[in-house]
Every structure is written in C-alpha cells, then in structure tokens.
C-alpha cells in the first residue's frame, strides 16, 4: 500500500520534498500540500489536496504521514501535533527555533515510547559523508584526531537573521560531525571574523577530537560544502562537488551550484526513501528528535556566546532510553 504523505510548506524545500514524493520515491505518494499561498501550493503539488491550515492537513484522514518544511519557528508545533495523532513525521531541520521547544518534542516522543520523528539532516544520506564515516569505522586512516568543515552559501536571503547562521546552517555540521565521529560534543568556541562573518567555530568532543567549521552564509561564488577527516595515518576529504570538468580558454574548471539542492539531490532522495521504508517496516531511520535537539542546544549556546567569545561547555539532559543508540 502506498503511504499518503502531506507536505506542509511549498517554499524551496517544501516544493523539493513534494517533487521527490511525486517522482523519486516508491511506496509513497504526495496526497496533500499546505501553504499560505494556494498558487505556490498548486505549482508544487499538482493534483494533491490543498490545505490552507497545517493542522487540518495533519489531522486529515487523507494523510498518513507528514513532511514539515514550513518556517523554522513552526516545526515543533506541527511535529507535536503529528505525534499526538500517532503520525510519522519527516521534519526539516532545525527541530525548533529554540532548544526548549525541541526538548518538548523529545519528551512527547519519549512519553509515547515510539520513534515517529525523523529530522531532515540529509547529509547522513550523502555518499561522500558515508565514505568518510566508514573510514572512521574501519580504522583505515588510523585514530581520528580532527575534522575540518566548510559550509558556504552563495548569499543569505533577506529574511535570514544573523543567528540563523548557527540555528539554521551550522546545525548541519553539528549533526554530521557527531555522526561522522560517533562522538558527542562537550565544548565549543566561536570567533566571528571582522564585520560579523564568516564565523569560525571550534568544538571538542568527549574523545578529544577537534572539529573546526567555517560558516559563511555570504561566500558570493556559490554553494560549497566541504569536509576533511584527519586520522593518525592519513586523511579523507570530499572530492570536488562536480561530475564534469570544463576545459575552456586555457583553464580547467567546474561549476558550484547556486544552492544545496543540486549538491545534495541524491541525499534528499535517499533520505525520503529511507523514511518511507522505515515506516513500512515499523523501524526508524536517519537523525532522531534527540539528534535535532542536541544540535539546537549547541547552536543556541553559541548564539549566546557570539559577542562574549568565551568557551561554551555543553551540558545535555540525560538521553531518554528511546534514543539509546549513538548518533
Ligand atoms: C539551508 O536551510 C539548508 O538546510 C542548507 O542545507 C544549508 O546549507 C543552508 O545553510 C541552510 O540555510
């Protein structure tokens, strides 16, 4: 039986989720779509049932599972509504705009005793990150010492506030670094460059690994994500983010994509398929609500530390048994 999915939000990510459900996923279909703008919703979900009210979509009998791709501040509210109705959710990151709201989601799911929430940390489904994680697991580059991350966006949209470089962008590196290393972060320090950005963040893990990240939301030239894992015997890093090279006018070059969708197209598709398959199998996949909460706690602590430049110690509440396995 095909899973009837309702998508909340028809902006850049909502439209992409709707397209993936219509074109790239087996075992599920786009049943409903919700957006404040009916024309935008119709363009993203031709033939899907339109809802103006997200809560009506979540409650509808025509919807068995929900993708949340609305503005960050609404994620926790809609996820909680789905948990109350026992409906599985694929929620775009972050889990919430504030850590306290993220904890509310974790507590609701832990009280239910069953994982219904998958966080949209799609990088876990990216082939390059997967190879890097396997290199750590099989010990091929020796003991892991460092991880260097680069996260550059071409240009931040007008509505992107300063704190969102941490709460909306850097949460990806928090999650992927925990997942790559299999370690929890225990301390972090942030250094804004002159003028307020780019940001340089250094984190330390419980095992003493160091994670450096440049977050640059206005890099100018394109979308560019890079990572290099440094071990005691060697390193493993991402290759150029391109399938082809162009030889022209005395130079060899490749193009950077304008945003994250082309770079992570395969990861988004694999993520959605894993979500659908896990629902059918009664299991769970990808990042959990707990993983989402942890990233939001760290991002929030760093927002508070931005001006002070102090080292932030990271303290988390006990991990509920539901999330016993490591990230
Ligand atoms: C955006 O919301 C995403 O999730 C992208 O993957 C990320 O690279 C970008 O910085 C975020 O703003």
- The radius of gyration is 20 Å
Largest sheet: 7 strands, mixed
Q: Report how far apart the termini are.
A: 31 Å
Q: Please, what is the oligomeric state?
A: single chain
Helix content: 25-40%
Strand coverage percent? 15-25%
Tally the structural domains: 2
Give every kind of bound small molecule, once each. (2R,3S,4s,5R,6S)-2,3,4,5,6-pentahydroxycyclohexanone
CATH superfamily of the largest domain: Dihydrodipicolinate Reductase, domain 2
The parts where pLDDT drops under 50 for at least 5 residues are none
Count of discrete alpha- or pi-helical segments spanning 4 or more residues? 10
Average pLDDT for all residues:
96
Order of helices and strands: EHEHEHEHEHEHEHEEEEEEEHHHE
Specify the structural class.
alpha/beta
Shape: globular
Q: How many beta-strand segments? A: 15
CATH architecture of the largest domain: 2-Layer Sandwich
Question: Largest sheet, order of strands side by side?
Answer: 12-11-7-10-9-8-15
CATH topology group of the largest domain: Dihydrodipicolinate Reductase, domain 2
What is the CATH first-level class name of the largest domain?
Answer: Alpha Beta
């Amino acid at each position: 039986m095909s899973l009837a999915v309702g998508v909340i939000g028809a902006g850049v990510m909502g439209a992409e989720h709707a397209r993936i459900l219509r074109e790239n996923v087996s075992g599920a279909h786009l049943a409903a779509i919700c957006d404040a703008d009916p024309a935008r919703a119709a363009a993203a979900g031709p033939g899907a049932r339109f809802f103006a009210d997200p809560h009506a979509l979540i409650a509808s009998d025509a919807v068995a599972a929900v993708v949340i791709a609305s503005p960050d501040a609404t994620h926790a509210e809609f996820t909680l509504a789905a948990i109350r109705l026992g409906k599985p959710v694929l929620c775009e990151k972050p889990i919430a705009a504030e850590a306290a709201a993220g904890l509310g989601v974790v507590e609701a799911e832990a009280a239910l005793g069953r994982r219904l929430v998958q966080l949209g940390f799609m990088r876990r489904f990216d082939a390059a990150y997967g190879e890097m994680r396997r290199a750590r697991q099989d010990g091929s580059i020796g003991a892991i010492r460092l991880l260097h991350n680069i996260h550059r966006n071409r240009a931040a949209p007008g509505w992107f506030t300063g704190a969102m470089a941490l709460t909306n962008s850097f949460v990806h590196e928090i999650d992927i670094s925990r997942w790559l290393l299999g370690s929890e972060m225990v301390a972090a320090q942030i250094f804004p460059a002159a003028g307020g950005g780019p940001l340089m963040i250094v984190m330390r893990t419980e095992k003493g690994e160091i994670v450096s990240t440049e977050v640059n939301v206005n890099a100018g030239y394109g979308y560019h994500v890079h990572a290099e894992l440094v071990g005691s015997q060697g390193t493993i890093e991402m290759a150029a983010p391109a399938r082809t090279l162009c030889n022209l006018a005395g130079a060899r070059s490749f193009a950077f994509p304008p945003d994250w969708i082309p770079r992570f197209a395969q990861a988004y598709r694999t993520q959605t398929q894993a979500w659908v398959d896990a629902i059918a199998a009664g299991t769970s996949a990808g990042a959990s609500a707990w993983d989402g909460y942890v990233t939001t706690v760290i991002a929030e602590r760093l927002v508070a530390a931005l001006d002070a430049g102090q080292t932030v110690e990271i303290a988390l509440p006990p991990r509920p048994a539901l999330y016993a396995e490591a990230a």
